[in-house]
Amino acid sequence: MPLVSMRQLLDEAAKGAYGVGAFNVNNMEQIQAIMEAARETKSPAIVQASRGARSYSQDRFLYHLMLAATELYPEIPTVLHLDHGNSVETCKSAIAMGFTSVMMDGSLMPDGKTPSTFEYNVKATREVVETAHSKGITVEGEIGCLGGIEDGHGAGLDGLSHLTDPDQAVEFVGQTGVDALAIAIGTSHGAYKFTSKPTGETLKMDRLLEIHRRLPNTHLVMHGSSSVPKDLQDIINQYGGKLKPTWGVPIEEIQLGIKNGVRKINVDTDNRLAITGAIRKVFAEKPEEFDPRSYLKPARDAMKKVVALRMTQFGQAGHAGDYAPISLEEMAKRYQRHLTA
Ligand code: G3H
Ligand code: 13P
Ligand code: ZN
Fold first, then answer.
1. Residue 24 near ligand 2, beta carbon < 6 Å
2. Is the whole-model pTM more than 0.90?
3. Ligand 2: which of 108, 188, 194, 267 to mutate, judged by most atoms within 8 Å of the beta carbon?
């Protein structure tokens, strides 16, 4: 089946009361890991590429790898999503290339670091929604800012300084018409989220509940949702790595989110850890090896294992065959009817 809109996947997830993981990719092995995990667990798949990923891969390569994925895994409803589009132009270029979903992250200015004004965010996001919906493409917006910078990404804020205000969230969705909304409830990007094991109070789940109560029909998105498992940290450190002690988002908190309107869960760091640990292990144990396949294959397998586990934990496993794809043309007509209704 062709690449499908994210809106369809998330609508189905809402009907079935489950969440869908969105996994970041930069190369062929990561795409293969996700598609293999999706096949094994019979899951719909959201594959996402950041601006950095598009530039690293020369995004046309990435796009064609995704077309290969749809040919090789025809039974898997698959979305190609732009993660953290920093400007209207970035989103439009992704749409022109064939992405079936885009995130306009207008919570930050185009530098991807400076928190923006509400007015800027609404204006930029609305413009993306107009272009995207006319082509049946899904739009994710963000209100409130996530934390995290240690990997050079993000606003350099701590996870709690710009939490989503529920009143603003309601106004933002009303004024932009986004399909999905990323909210800030205390998570941050990267490996260093929390310096001690999170308690039930660490994430601001009461905000999430309030936002879901007031926007029951908007699909909520949790960014910064890697769990940063200790076993993956340990493998890296055992084979010469130097990760500092750190904690991520507990799976139970994500599952609580899924019970309360979270339909898309962004995970990148856990896969980075799995890949790096597997490669370090081969380098340490077989220093005589120099065929890249000798370490890229275990790396791909390690990522597949993490993705398959998350697909099961988020509840999307078993749902790949539930529905037939809706074409982007039909999605565009639906948006049009909704607008004119
Ligand atoms: O949101 C951040 C994702 O982990 C992507 O990171 O911008 O380094 O590709 P990146
Ligand atoms: P992690 O760094 O927690 O994996 O978050 C990824 C993310 O939110 C991508 O947009
Ligand atoms: Zn993110």
1. yes
2. yes
3. 267
Whole-number Å distance between alpha carbons of 184 and 163: 5
| Rounded-to-integer distance, Cα 20 and Cα 265, Å | 6
Amino acid type, 273: L
Say how far residue 187 (Cα) sits from the centre of its chain: 13
> Which amino acid belongs to residue 29?
E
**Atom 5 of ligand 1: nearest residue by CA position:** 50
Q: Is the pLDDT of residue 315 over 50?
A: yes
Per-residue pLDDT tens digits for 226-246: 999 999 999 999 999 999 999
Q: From ligand 2's centre to the CA of 222, what distance in Å?
A: 9
The beta strands (E) that lie in the chain are given as: 20-24, 45-49, 78-85, 101-104, 138-143, 180-183, 219-222, 262-267
- pLDDT for position 152: 40
